[in-house]
Amino acid sequence: MSLHRTPSPTELTIVAPRRDVITHLREIVSYRELLFSLVRKELKVRYKHSTLGLLWSMIQPLFLLLIYSVVFSVLGGGIPRLGIWIMSGLLVWTLVSTSVTTAVQSITANGALVGKVRFPRAVLPTATVGAALIHFVLQFSAFALVLLVVRQPVDWAYMWLIPFAIAALVLFLVALGMMVAAMNVYARDTQHLLDMLILGWFWLTPIVFTYGLFLKYLARHDLPDWLPMLNPITPAVTVVQRAIYGKASVNGTSVLPDESVMWYLRNTAVLALVAVVMMYVALRVFDRAEVNMAESL
Amino acid sequence: MSQAIVVDDVSKIFRIATDPVQSLKERLVAVGRRHFTNFTALAPLTFSIDQGETVGILGHNGSGKSTLLKCIAGILRPTTGTIAVRGRLASLLELGAGFHPELSGRENVYINAAFLGISRKEIGSLLDDIIDFAELGQFIDEPVKHYSSGMYVRLGFAVAVNLDPDVLLVDEVLAVGDEAFAKKCIGRVKQFQSEGRTILVVTHSSDIVRQVCNRAIVLDHGQLIADGKPADAITIFREHLHGTLIDDTPHRSARVHLDEVRVLDHGDDQVRLEVEVMAVEPTDGVMLSVEVTDKGNRLVYRVDSSQLGMPVHLDEGSTQFAFDLNVSPLLGGTYPCTIRLIEAETGRLLDWHDLQTGVNVTRSTAGEGVADLGAALLRRTHPVDHPA
Q1: Domain that holds residue B113
Q2: B154 lies in a domain?
Q3: Is A294 within 8 Å of B51 when comparing Cβ atoms?
């Protein structure tokens, strides 16, 4: 039996009122095994008792793509291959909205756990973003398959940017998720407020409306053209759209900024920088909130 | 010997809203005007526990013992001070807390282990031990929502004790499942002790402390009031407990006090305790109680005059009382006694008298424990009838 071991305690755990950002981060990283376990659990539980299981997360976007394509080809209007345009933005948006709406409840929904087991609580919101990322990867692979079948002329020059854009976005979402999850412990209004805000946020992101349409509006009202980029989702969405949709304008109308790869790369870098700063703030805020979490649930 | 747990100047203060607001509207209206009071659950505590010690934390409800355990477990964080724990810590306050009802027992073991920082790979070899210990058999692959509560707790316990912890925290849950399993759990805790692991037990039962601990810490209102050998700590705990229940120190009022207490052996199985009470004026509304314990401070018997249906009336001067005790059910040995004089209405302790020798049962008896159940061992044979 494995129990006959002389205790040789090496790890030293310190419980203190506060910890600095580096210690906090190191603690989260040391619990990565738990993070993977929780992500696996989220995926397993979600498709429990269904025969197709994870396939559902691939079928759903394909069905959506079919609907958009059929509806707009019947009704007309919009830009050509509108289904593919919308899907390339919508998949990124689904990653954002799923992450945020599940992360906000990740701690309050696990009250029993938080009250009884020791672990860095930031793992909980991180795990929900992780599960959303896995879904995104699955959905995106299914989408890629369709692109291959319909011979979508993607722009390979921009393709390599996608992983970087998604990585920066995920870092941003983890930071945001940690903050809203901590807030929700002390004021449950957060989750309801967020459910509402996310609806408005969707329309501030160039998904159904094109980026070109936003620019046209801004020009008409003498507003600066960098305004849409204040939305941290926009850099990631536009990178994916530029690569998948393959062109910046159709029939003379601009749908995306007609800029070089470097311009998109710069936006991605800014997003990454914002995400890092957010992460620093989130780790500090979360550490402060964690002190009384177990009693507040 | 190295230190396993170091508690350094740890305090915990809870902020309690004195005017709790429920709705968002109330909250908005009350912004910046809410009133809080601070509740000190733990006064600054400093102590350390060596590797291999089994320490009982004694205290009654609200003494802060669970808060302390949660701080050591890292579930709560102290308001000031730090706690250092060396080695892997598992706590038995969490039996099955991390379980997800939809997942199988096996999956849940993986997740539970991950909370202790153990990877899927590492647990591979331990899984069979856990399933064995929890007595789950093929149920391990069923979703835990189909488990009985006993199975649930058994699996939780099995995970906690089989994952090789260096420090084990226990919160009065040793009696899990049926009696056989509870025995197995105590056995495992004893095995841990012999292996030199550190165990911390939180309880309000002095019996558990006496049975398994080699050191005890007594908490009261967040303050450490005793730290030492179990027997000494238990004595302080019990005195303190009576103190809080009845009052702090005896009110040796000039009005009434115990003058003399005598033990008179009186027949084979009869003991008479004679008590002389002094009063300066005629007094009613007092009670006399007698408490018999064994040498380990375990309560054997306690009764007071009101339970016996006998009002205590004191005349001016001295009044004599006598408790007649039938000690025939007791095993041979010495049993300390305490006589208490209590104000009936308030429960205030007016005076007490300890008799260390107390009741002496000289009969030679077989067996151990408290009561002599007079066992006899019979033997009977049934010769096999060979058919003719």
Answers
A1: 3-22+34-242
A2: yes
A3: no
Q: Which CA distances in Å does B187 have to A118, B182, B194, B210?
A: 26, 9, 11, 16
Of the pLDDT bands very low, low, confident and very high (cuts 50, 70, 90), residue A8 is very low
Query: In which element (H, E) is residue A42 found?
Result: helix A32-46
If asked whether residues B214 and B265 sit together in one domain, one would say no
What CATH number corresponds to the domain at position B220? 3.40.50.300
| Contact (Cβ atoms closer than 8 angstroms) between residue B365 and residue B329 | no
Give pTM, 2 decimals: 0.75
Q: What is the distance in angstroms between the Cα of B113 and the nearest Cα belonging to chain A?
A: 8
Partners of A15 on chain B (C-beta within 8 Å) are 71-72, 74, 77-78, 82-85
DSSP-assigned states of every residue in A244-293: HH--SEETTEESS----HHHHHHHHHHHHHHHHHHHHHHHHHHHHHHTTH
Separation between Cα atoms, residue A275 and residue A296, nearest integer Å: 28
**Distance from B182 to chain A by nearest Cα, in Å?**
19
Each residue of A169-192: pLDDT tens digit? 999 999 999 999 999 998 888 999
Residue A124's nearest CA partner among B152, B98, B251 is B98
Residue of chain A with shortest Cα separation from B115: A34
- Distance from C-alpha of B131 to C-alpha of B227, rounded to nearest angstrom: 39
Asked if the C-beta of A1 comes within 8 angstroms of chain B's C-beta atoms, the answer is: yes
Question: Is A51 in the B-facing interface, judged by CB distances under 8 Å?
Answer: no
Count of CB atoms situated within 10 Å of the CB of A276:
14
Tokens representing A289 are 């909130």
B307 to chain A, any CB pair closer than 8 A? The answer is: no
- Summarised one tens digit per residue, pLDDT across range B265-301 is 766 788 888 888 888 888 888 889 888 888 766 778 8
Q: Which of B20 and B10 is assigned the larger pLDDT?
A: B10
Average pLDDT over residues B178-205: 80
Q: For residue B331, what is the DSSP state?
A: P
Question: Would you say how long chain B is, in residues?
Answer: 388
Residue B269 near chain A (CB below 8 Å) = no
Report yes or no: A45 at the B interface, CB cutoff 8 Å: yes
Q: What is the CATH number of the domain that holds B298?
A: 2.70.50.60
A200 touches chain B (CB under 8 A): no
Separation between Cα atoms, residue B224 and residue A74, nearest integer Å = 79
B34-58 pLDDT, tens digit per residue, is 677 788 889 899 999 999 999 999 8
Stretch (H or E) spanning B265: strand B256-265
Q: How many domains does chain B have?
A: 2
